[in-house]
Amino acid sequence: MTANSVNGSAKISYADVEVGTELPAQTFPVTRATLVQYAGASGDFNPIHWNEKFAVEVGLPDVIAHGMFTMAEAIRVVTDWVGDPGAVVEYGVRFTRPVVVPNDGQGATIEVSGKVGAKLDDNTVRVDLLAMCAGQKVLGMSRAVVRLG
């Protein structure tokens, strides 16, 4: 149980949410060091995520972030809003563009916003997410179904 949840449930009430309710937007910095840490945690050591020479040789503009890393950062907007990661009952995305992470000390920034797209049955809502990097949409059809209190 987190400090923001009561008995493992969401801190947001279904009755208080309307279609169009906006979630607080967040930005997530991504550096090469972040990618190496994620590779260690996930076991995904594909060189496109850490070796610039290899990434370019296979046709990428530079090293790119792991798709699952990008997906995980995006859902944080929902879990932070709802206060309970266990409230997410479904989540899916389409990968539309890679998050390119240059080795310039600054890296990249993933900007994520979300809004309630629909109120569903059983105290659930569909949250539609928008994930952008360098002015381009990096996740398409990014949607989560969340059970609210």
UniProtKB/TrEMBL annotation:
<protein>
    <submittedName>
        <fullName>MaoC family dehydratase</fullName>
    </submittedName>
</protein>
<dbReference type="Pfam" id="PF01575">
    <property type="entry name" value="MaoC_dehydratas"/>
</dbReference>
<dbReference type="GO" id="GO:0004312">
    <property type="term" value="F:fatty acid synthase activity"/>
</dbReference>
<dbReference type="InterPro" id="IPR029069">
    <property type="entry name" value="HotDog_dom_sf"/>
</dbReference>
<dbReference type="InterPro" id="IPR003965">
    <property type="entry name" value="Fatty_acid_synthase"/>
</dbReference>
<dbReference type="GO" id="GO:0006633">
    <property type="term" value="P:fatty acid biosynthetic process"/>
</dbReference>
<dbReference type="InterPro" id="IPR002539">
    <property type="entry name" value="MaoC-like_dom"/>
</dbReference>
<dbReference type="GO" id="GO:0005835">
    <property type="term" value="C:fatty acid synthase complex"/>
</dbReference>
<comment type="similarity">
    <text>Belongs to the enoyl-CoA hydratase/isomerase family.</text>
</comment>
<feature type="domain" description="MaoC-like">
    <location>
        <begin position="20"/>
        <end position="127"/>
    </location>
</feature>
